[in-house]
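A quick aside before the break. I want you to see a complete sequence-to-structure record at least once, exactly as it would be stored in a machine-readable document. Don't worry about memorizing anything.
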Amino acid sequence: MLALTSLVIPHRAMARASAADTRIRHEPPEPSRGQPGRDKSTPTKPRAAATIAAKPHPAAGDHEGSGQLVSVFMPGLFLLPVAQQPPDLPQFVSPDDDTLTEFGATSSSGSIGLIAHNYLAGAEFFDLRVADEFFLIYGDGRVEPFVVSAIERYQALQPDSPYSEFINLRSGGQLSASELHDRIYETPGRVVFQTCIARENETEWGRLFVIAKPAAD
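That is the input. The structure line, written in tokens, reads:
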């Protein structure tokens, strides 16, 4: 398991993380570098366009038949399984390639956070655009359509701290970690893809949030 300090986690969730968390942290592998100043993280490896005949189907496995989120289908881009965070590890992000992690700290607000390392599945988030439609697939066969409505980027003034202050790269406004968490996640019904932005020699220089709303709205 891997814990990542780059998540925007409210203080109440961080309080549940024990000192043992520090023992499972390790440095991510050094990513390949792109052009200086680009806010895209490590390059996405070649991937065949994701397609599913007819309509998306739930991923088979232990959660089949349950109401748990099991995968995300972005037509033409990806079909990725969703892992769950272990109890009391709000910083956990799956170390598996091509796997998203559902951010447990957002469940109380009614939003869905989907997080991934920028050198693994999170690299896919940089290819998302406003108006892209995708589907959440649940173990009980339910399929919910969403559409990307906004993309926000922030610089972390203390990249390795979950309590960092953040600068909005579009407006220049500054927010605390808690304020940013509330801005991004405290809207019921939305889906948020979150990963880090790498720049120069800092793999956690900033944060990317791809925000979506139900397609019917």
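Two observations worth writing down. The first strand starts at residue 69 and ends at 74. The CA atoms of residues 85 and 92 lie 6 Å apart. We'll return to this after the break.
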